[in-house]
Amino acid sequence: MTLPSSDSNLLSTNDPGHTIEKASPTKKNDSTLSLAETARSSKKDEIDFLNAKLANPLAGLSHEQLMEDGKAFATRYGLEDLSELFKKGALVAKDPLAFEDLSLLTEEEKQALREEVSNKWKQPKMLYYLVILCSGKSSMDESVINGANLFFAPQFGIEPRGGTAEQNSRNQWILGLVNSAPYLCCAVLGCWLTGPLNRMFGRRGTIFITAFFSFITCIWQGVTNSWPHLFVARFILGLGIGPKSSTVPVYVAECAPPSIRGALVMMWQTWTAFGIMLGFVMDLAFFKVPNTTHITGLNWRLMLGSAGVPALFIVVQVFFVPESPRWLLSKGRYRDAYESLCSVRMHPIQAARDLYYMNVLLEAENEMQRHGSRFFELFTVPRNRRATLASFIVMFICGVNVIAYYSSEIFADAHFSQIQALLASFGFGAINFVFAFPAVYTIDTFGRRNLLLTTFPLMALFLLMTGFSFWIPESSQARLAMISLGIYLFGMAYSPGEGPVPFTYSAEAFPLYVRDIGMSLATATLWFFNFIIAITFPRLLGAFKPQGAFGWYAGWNMLGFLAVLLFVPETKALSLEELDQVFSVPTRVHAAYQVKALPRNIKKYIFRMNVPDVPPLYEHERAMQGMSTDAKTSMKTV
């Protein structure tokens, strides 16, 4: 790429004779920067330039130039019959909120643009159908195994309780391995197939393939005849779970309008919670199904097989929803991309605006293709490294998957009957689903970082409460009540906090040019931790007893709190430039600032004391602090 010659701080790596004009901050024997320092400075400036250009490539263009470009775009890509529409779309794309002053727009078009702001949830039914359909088959597989554990483990000779200490230890590891198999596959293989599958088959094609894998392997699980056989079937299931978990949030983001993009992407987590709840429903529905003459364990086989039914609905219906317009643009299918956008927008002017701007961004990204490894730049470029660290932390172990996978075992250890254990597990699933809804509002008002800092200590407290309740005498009804209450309170804290934040945070923390590879790494991290939890918990439960096992995960939650406090910046409602500024603050500076601010925040927000504000860390915060109260109110209203 060629960098603007007008910026004296930018150095083209193709021009070794060009030196940076900015003076070195320290005195050196040599008046010029060393070659290594020059290269580092050049790389940083180049990345800053990339992100600034991607922030708004239309900035600085006149109305006449925009209209000419819009018409040329329509002519170039076989949309001549829509030339006038794309002239308008290009004008609106530069500043979507300044449309009232554009005389070229009709009153009908202006009204459609007004309603984007005044009634942002008024969207075509196709958009909501797309979101619900693609997010629906999320985590039913995670909870049906919960009830099935009670039955296939003794049938396959891996009962984790009742044998000798050596037998119990062996069986606990095997049970954990069988349960964790899909997440092992996701971490080491499934998530890394996302890119190739999306490039070859598109978003819909990838979702179709992964849903088909999920359907086939769920049925396969139901006809297995040994634990190694079940392990293989569940491992292959990861090929359905991994790429889909990375593709659906991206697909929804590419189809959703900006005003509700965050909330719609979050539907993935909401319907994940619904899938977990539905899995518990299936466990209850098939609990009393008896064996037949030729089939032993028909109940658990139906439980595992039932998780394939939602996947079958997706397989049948996914091609009734439009393909991602951005993917269609990348394949040169501009007419199809326009029609796709028309099906998920209320008016053609919105579709023309969004298609034109998508194309501008795509051209800017293609122009800025880099020669280095984008994966390694996640760690070698300081701004990217901080985003990678923060995304890694928000995918942290919190303990919820212990309950999603093993709540029936936990309740059985508390001396619930099998049916009581499943009913209590369903209660957790229902709470997890219901309390996911508040996050649609709080994630964009309270903030990602604040949600984590608030809920991690609460989750630790409720895990301790659950574990300590196992010391209540078995004969007491209070034992059952307190164990259930601790788990339910944990679900209430998790669902609006650590539940929705990871995918949302990871999708916005990375710069655009490494966002896809960054998201794949973050998703693989999530599934790797799921694998660790699933494989270790049965043995942890046997070795540490419930009190120690829950205490162990409570400790990890407190470590998570400290990691978020020190290393995870807030990303709520920040522009690309502001995100670059946030992640450009050195890690040690951010950590030191947060340690200094913590006592003041505890006094202010917990003890409600009147304490002086700590000076802001970021430039945009200083600008907000300097604004008048009326201006802040006006900005929040807009």
UniProtKB/TrEMBL annotation:
This protein's UniProt keywords: Membrane, Transmembrane, Transmembrane helix, Transport
Gene3D superfamilies, alphabetized: MFS general substrate transporter like domains
PROSITE patterns per the UniProt record, alphabetical: MFS (PS50850)
Keyword Transmembrane: yes
Disordered: region residues: 1-37
Main location, first listed in the record: membrane
Protein name: Major facilitator superfamily (MFS) profile domain-containing protein
Species, as recorded: Agaricus bisporus var. burnettii (strain JB137-S8 / ATCC MYA-4627 / FGSC 10392)
